[in-house]
Design brief:
Blueprint: E1 2-7, E2 16-21, E3 24-28, H1 39-44, E4 54-58, H2 64-67, H3 70-75, E5 82-84, H4 86-102, H5 110-118, E6 120-122, E7 129-131, E8 134-140, E9 148-154, E10 157-161, E11 184-188, H6 200-213, E12 217-221, H7 227-241, E13 248-252, H8 254-265, H9 273-282, E14 284-285, H10 289-295, E15 302-306, H11 316-322, E16 330-333, H12 342-347, E17 352-354, E18 360-362, E19 366-369, H13 379-385, E20 394-398, H14 402-414, E21 419-421, E22 428-430
Parallel strand pairs: 3-4, 4-5, 5-6, 10-11, 11-20, 12-15, 12-16, 13-14, 13-15, 16-19, 20-21
Antiparallel strand pairs: 1-2, 1-22, 2-3, 7-8, 8-9, 9-10, 17-18
Bound molecules: zinc ion.
Zinc ion binds next to loops.
């Protein structure tokens, strides 16, 4: 087998790796480049193979940085099957339709997403599937519902792609399945240089109790898929145990509503099915304009969960605009805030963001962040994932900022993993 590294080598996003199997070329993940200023240009760059030459794609999970380029690939001539788990297939459709709405018509449209959806072949975890003279299977990797690592075998050789790895103490999901022995391991390293700090229970409970006791308005900016469903489950659980703190909670995000349905449908894959089902049914969803109008006049105690998680757009802004003069209101940011985003600027003290082309929002309330929420394995957990692997195996680190990859490599070398590499774009490995 021959691997060509492409996306997520010099940065975290845009995951794309080509694998030449005995009978054709496949692509592992097909992500969008997000964040850097030249992201749009990078997303339109030519790939090393023509889309028509690629025989199949395997998607590890639904996040845009692993899947968001798929409709573009289809639009440009890719006609083969797209393999992923049944949950990923459902979440993909929701996320890609939203992405099409936000992207340029030239790049791809909702119609391209529907064609992409028709090429999906869902397969369950641990189901061995033949593909182009090789065999592959998906195994659970935690992270978000349905996320997988990929194991590929051909000619007595084995390669494992970690996909994004989840934490070992995730409140909803089982821990990632440990890595098997393999000739080559391609591993994510988002938190390769860091140990996670803080306690998400404590941070969330302090927020919930403060809103209730002091009759405040709390606005939670959350990613619509996975983070929101985790928050809903944790809030539901907290209110069960502390009914004295229960206040009205409203969701305002159509995508959040759709993703919650998928979490409910596949709740058996979580560690607490009963909790997830109850939580997905519990909270009010803002559906109509008149509900929004009546909400605008409300004072606390009240909690609103809306997206986007980094304040880059979405309906969360209308809530910030509405309560911007309420000094007691709290904006809670329970997620990573990327460099250059308004969320990061708010955490660093900025209080003004554009609302629309004419108006700005000047937030006078409080801003609370929490670093404890993360759906990625930290450095210790990445090392734990490798504990069954021979120290002589070849390990390639991708999907991390340079410093994170260098620190993880250093740590692995200290632990006597001898063959750790940081591939660059277009690097090739033969297995
Ligand atoms: Zn991810």
């Amino acid at each position: 087998m021959k691997i060509t590294f492409w996306g997520a080598t010099d940065q975290v996003t845009g995951s794309k790796t080509f694998v030449e199997l005995p009978e054709g070329i496949i692509l592992i993940d097909c992500g969008l480049v997000q964040g850097p200023e030249n992201a749009d240009k990078q997303n339109l760059e030519n790939l090393p193979f023509k889309p028509g030459q690629i025989k199949a794609v395997i998607i590890t999970h639904a996040h845009l940085d692993h899947s968001g380029y798929l409709p573009r690939l289809v639009k440009k001539g890719f006609e083969g099957p797209i393999y992923c788990t049944p949950v990923t297939a459902k979440l993909l459709k929701i996320i890609l339709l939203d992405s099409a709405k936000l992207s340029d018509e030239e790049f791809y449209t909702q119609q391209d997403v529907m064609v992409t959806d028709s090429q999906i072949k869902s397969i369950n975890w641990n189901h061995k599937t033949s593909l182009l003279g090789a065999q592959f299977e998906l195994i659970p990797s935690g992270h978000i519902l349905g996320a997988s690592s990929v194991v590929i075998k051909a000619n007595e050789k084995k390669i494992i792609f970690s996909g994004d790895l989840g934490r070992f103490d995730d409140p909803l999901l089982p821990p990632p399945e440990l890595c098997h022995e393999a000739n080559l391991i391609v591993m994510e390293s988002t938190y390769g240089g860091k140990l996670r700090h803080g306690d998400y229970h404590k941070d969330l409970h302090t927020f919930l109790a403060t809103v209730a006791q002091e009759s405040r308005v709390g606005i939670i900016a959350s990613f619509a898929v996975a983070r929101a469903q985790m928050l809903m489950s944790l809030i539901f659980d907290f209110y069960q145990r502390h009914p004295e703190y229960k206040v009205r909670v409203i969701l305002d995000s159509p995508m959040m509503k759709e993703a919650s349905k998928v979490y409910k449908q596949f709740s058996a894959l979580t560690q607490n099915q009963h909790l997830v089902v109850s939580a997905m049914e519990e909270f009010e969803v803002l559906e109509h304009e008149r509900e929004w109008e009546s909400l605008q006049k409300k004072s606390g105690p009240l909690i609103i969960i809306s997206s986007s998680g980094m304040l880059t757009g979405g309906r969360v802004k209308r809530h910030l605009a509405n309560w911007q003069n309420d000094h007691k209101a709290i904006l809670f940011l329970p997620g990573y805030q990327g460099e250059g985003t308004p969320g990061r600027a708010f955490l660093e003290g900025e209080r003004t963001i554009p609302f629309n082309e004419e108006e700005n929002i000047h937030w006078t309330g409080e801003v609370w962040g929490s670093e404890a929420f993360s759906s990625h394995a930290d450095q210790a957990e990445l090392i734990r994932w490798l504990e069954n692997v021979d120290k002589k195996s070849t390990i390639c680190l991708v999907h991390g900022e340079n410093l994170a990859k260098i620190e993880l490599k250093k740590k692995l070398n200290e632990l006597h993993y001898e063959n750790v590499f940081i591939p660059k774009r277009e690097d090739v490995k033969l297995v």
